[in-house]
Every structure is written in structure tokens, then in C-alpha cells.
Automatic annotation (TrEMBL):
It is found in: Mitochondrion membrane. GO terms for cellular component: mitochondrial membrane; proton-transporting ATP synthase complex. Keywords: CF(0), Hydrogen ion transport, Ion transport, Membrane, Mitochondrion, Transmembrane, Transmembrane helix, Transport. GO terms for biological process: proton motive force-driven ATP synthesis. This is ATP synthase complex subunit 8. It is a single-pass membrane protein. The chain crosses the membrane at residues 7-30. F-type ATPases have 2 components, CF(1) - the catalytic core - and CF(0) - the membrane proton channel. It comes from the Eukaryota. GO terms for molecular function: proton transmembrane transporter activity. Belongs to the ATPase protein 8 family. Its main location: mitochondrion. The lineage of its organism: Eukaryota, Metazoa, Ecdysozoa, Arthropoda, Hexapoda.
Length: 52
């Protein structure tokens, strides 16, 4: 049974690595992030009466 030449293994590795990197970059940049919902109740401040 003939084996693949080392150059073919290198080309195969480069092809699979480049497709993995390409799909990772596409997944990172093509997803639209949702803007954070700003709510005023998140940052409520309480008034303190210091009696010194």
C-alpha cells in the first residue's frame, strides 16, 4: 500500500490549518454583539446622613 509523500502531508496540514483559522476569524468578526442594556436601577446611590 503506497504511503503519502511528506510534501502531501505538509500541504494537507496547511490546508486544514488555514481553513480552521479562516472559520475562526469569520466566526469572530461576523457575529454582531448585542449592545448592553443600560438601566438606571443598576447604579442607584443611597443618601447617607452622617451625624458626627
Amino acid at each position: 500500500m503506497p504511503q503519502m509523500a511528506p510534501l502531501s502531508w505538509l500541504i494537507l496540514f496547511i490546508v486544514f490549518s488555514s481553513t480552521l483559522i479562516l472559520f475562526s476569524i469569520m466566526n469572530y468578526f461576523l457575529t454582531a454583539p448585542t449592545p448592553p442594556q443600560s438601566t438606571s436601577s443598576q447604579f442607584e446611590t443611597q443618601a447617607f446622613n452622617w451625624k458626627w
